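Q: Hi! First time doing this. I have a protein sequence and I read that you can turn it into a structure. Is that right? Here it is:
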Amino acid sequence: MPWWGILLIIISTFIVFSIIHFCSKNKRPFKRALISMCIGAATLTGVNLLSGITGVYIPVSLLSVLVSVIGGVPGVTLLLTLNLFF
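A: Yes, that's right. Below is the predicted 3D structure, encoded as structure tokens:
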């Protein structure tokens, strides 16, 4: 996938999260959307950093990064569950 396609997915996700936070009457919808996306990426990073201790590892690919950024903590949990079964 070209780099502009990835950038388009991330920007559209940010806009959708901003609209959701705006509709739920948050004071700063853009900040909350950015925080939601960063928490997902940080969770994926945390899981991979602790893989030596826990033995759980999620391979970092375009799909796993997009799922973690778009889904946040539930997205990373989904990746961990799928890693457990497959």
